[in-house]
């Protein structure tokens, strides 16, 4: 009999990998919790991916961390739930972050996959999904450390933003169809 936990992880991993294929042939690195095994996983794109434009000029570096755990679904079925994500789009030359999309309600230590020890001045965990935009304009407040509310942001949305708005070169001609398919799968299975 198939293991429902393994099936849930395989389905999630296949979907998020298929979404990534719109950008690159690189695969997610997957780490399992030392004690909880495949119940808790960290998917990571590190070192960051170099993203180029249609002229093959380096534009951005993309790094991503998606923390998941398997939860009960209908009957004996299991499904994967995202419990934290951090997506960072940085300048390819100076590696400074330009856009970041975060949701880290529990602030996890990425080495142990356990809750991180927080300092007295640490503002995290910050339970609401948010973005950081590194923009300086004297007419406005400094946005550097502001938590701009976003609602939950799927990895597919970040890829679409990069390909459609930021003119990153896609890895495949059918990238819109790929992201449509993976977005529909996410909609079917999401808990938010």
Structural write-up:
With 192 residues, the chain is an alpha+beta fold. It has one domain (4-189). The chain has helices spanning 4-20, 155-165, 175-189; strands at 29-33, 37-52, 58-72, 78-91, 97-104, 126-133, 148-149. A 7-stranded antiparallel β-sheet has the order 1-2-3-4-5-6-7. β2 (37-52) and β3 form a beta hairpin.
Chart the SSEs and their pairings.
Elements: H1 4-20, E1 29-33, E2 37-52, E3 58-72, E4 78-91, E5 97-104, E6 126-133, E7 148-149, H2 155-165, H3 175-189
Antiparallel strand pairs: 1-2, 2-3, 3-4, 4-5, 5-6, 6-7
Primary descriptors:
about 190 residues, alpha+beta, 7-stranded antiparallel beta sheet, 3 helices, 7 strands, about 20% helix, globular
Q: Please, how many helices?
A: 3
* Overall body shape: globular
Main β-sheet, in a few words?
7 strands, antiparallel
Order of helices and strands: HEEEEEEEHH
Our estimate of the beta-strand percent is 35-45%
Low-confidence stretches: none
Give the beta-strand count: 7
Given helix and strand content, the structural type is alpha+beta
The strand order across the widest sheet is 1-2-3-4-5-6-7
Number of domains: 1
* C-alpha-based Rg, rounded: 17 Å
């Amino acid at each position: 009999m198939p293991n429902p936990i393994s099936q849930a992880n395989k389905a999630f991993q296949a979907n998020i990998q298929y979404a990534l294929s719109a950008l690159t042939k690189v695969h997610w690195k997957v780490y399992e919790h030392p004690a909880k095994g495949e119940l808790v996983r960290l998917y990571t794109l590190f070192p960051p991916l170099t993203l180029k434009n249609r002229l093959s000029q380096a534009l951005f570096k993309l790094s991503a961390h998606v923390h998941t755990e398997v939860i009960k679904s209908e009957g004996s079925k299991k499904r994967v739930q995202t419990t934290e994500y951090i997506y960072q789009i940085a300048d390819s030359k100076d590696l400074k972050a330009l856009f970041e999309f975060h949701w880290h309600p529990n602030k996890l230590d990425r080495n142990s996959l356990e809750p991180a020890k927080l300092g007295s001045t640490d503002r995290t965990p910050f339970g609401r999904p948010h973005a950081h935009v590194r923009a300086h304009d004297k007419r406005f407040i400094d946005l550097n450390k502001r938590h701009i509310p976003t609602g939950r942001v799927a990895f597919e949305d970040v890829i679409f933003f990069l390909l459609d708005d930021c003119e990153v070169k896609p890895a495949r001609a059918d990238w819109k169809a790929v992201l449509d398919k993976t977005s529909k799968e996410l909609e079917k299975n999401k808990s938010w």
